[in-house]
UniProtKB/TrEMBL annotation:
<feature type="compositionally biased region" description="Basic and acidic residues">
    <location>
        <begin position="166"/>
        <end position="185"/>
    </location>
</feature>
<dbReference type="InterPro" id="IPR016135">
    <property type="entry name" value="UBQ-conjugating_enzyme/RWD"/>
</dbReference>
<feature type="compositionally biased region" description="Acidic residues">
    <location>
        <begin position="204"/>
        <end position="213"/>
    </location>
</feature>
<protein>
    <submittedName>
        <fullName>RWD domain-containing protein</fullName>
    </submittedName>
</protein>
<dbReference type="Pfam" id="PF05773">
    <property type="entry name" value="RWD"/>
</dbReference>
<dbReference type="InterPro" id="IPR032378">
    <property type="entry name" value="ZC3H15/TMA46_C"/>
</dbReference>
<dbReference type="Pfam" id="PF16543">
    <property type="entry name" value="DFRP_C"/>
</dbReference>
<dbReference type="InterPro" id="IPR006575">
    <property type="entry name" value="RWD_dom"/>
</dbReference>
<dbReference type="InterPro" id="IPR040213">
    <property type="entry name" value="GIR2-like"/>
</dbReference>
<feature type="region of interest" description="Disordered">
    <location>
        <begin position="166"/>
        <end position="239"/>
    </location>
</feature>
<feature type="domain" description="RWD">
    <location>
        <begin position="8"/>
        <end position="112"/>
    </location>
</feature>
Length: 239
């Protein structure tokens, strides 16, 4: 690489990047790079591209390195940027390539910032969707199936029986021995409803009076004709 070629490229770069370019030695320069057209709220990233010109430049790649000045970049992201820069450099061998490399770096930083913003937005939308579904689930409740209803009914009946047993126990504790005996005796009696459900036709022999006589109800029935005849006789007597 001739000194004239290097001086000419440096002059061009200095006119394009007057505030970003600095020369650290005869063969080393440093150019700061940031994303283009950052939108409001997007996090900025600033890097420094360090270039060491080799004797074979521009027919061979210069030595390149990146320093992070602002923002956070993962090692994998830095390595990806370096791989892109080397690829672009290989495509421009034989030409002064530093301006092209810096331009490409700025474009990649812009894309990286946009990707981060889109990823963050997608994460926020996902959180919102999950929150909405959780709230709807509270309102909607759990669908009832035959199995779930039977399980609930069994649990409910068990809890109700336990509650009644506890109440019964407390009630008995408050009674005297005589009152408890009388209470248990009355509880053992069957109610009318229980007797009815036991024999709906009331055919229980214990409920039938053995000495009772049957009655023919037909003996007490009067026909419509007999009633009308009696009414006519009554009117006749009045006359």
């Amino acid at each position: 690489m001739s000194a004239d070629v290097l001086a000419e490229e440096y002059e061009v770069l200095e006119s394009i990047y007057p505030a970003e370019l600095s020369k650290t030695s005869e063969k080393d320069i440093r150019i700061e790079a940031e994303p283009d057209d950052l939108e409001e709220g997007e996090d900025s990233i600033k890097l420094a591209l360090k270039v060491h010109y080799t004797d074979g430049y521009p027919d061979e790649l210069p030595h390149l390195a990146l320093d992070v000045l602002e923002g956070d970049l993962a090692d994998s992201e830095l390595e990806g940027l370096m791989t892109d820069l080397r690829t672009v450099g290989e495509e421009n061998l034989g030409l002064a390539m530093i301006f092209t490399l810096v331009s490409h770096l700025r474009e990649r930083l812009s894309a990286l910032v946009r990707e981060r913003a889109q990823r963050h937005q997608a994460e926020e939308h996902e959180k919102e969707r999950i929150a909405i579904e959780a709230e709807e689930a509270k309102t909607r409740g759990t669908p009832v199936t035959i199995e779930s209803f039977r399980a609930w009914k069994a649990k409910f009946d068990k809890e109700l029986a336990e509650k009644k047993a506890k109440q019964e126990e407390e009630k008995l504790k408050a009674m005297t021995p005589k009152e408890r005996e009388e209470y248990r005796r009355t509880q053992s009696r069957q109610s009318g409803r229980q007797l009815f459900e036991k024999n709906k036709n009331l055919e229980d022999e214990s409920l039938v009076d053995e000495e009772a006589t049957s009655v023919d109800i037909s003996q007490y029935e009067r026909t419509r004709e007999e009633e009308e005849e009696e009414e006519r006789l009554t009117w006749s007597d009045d006359d």
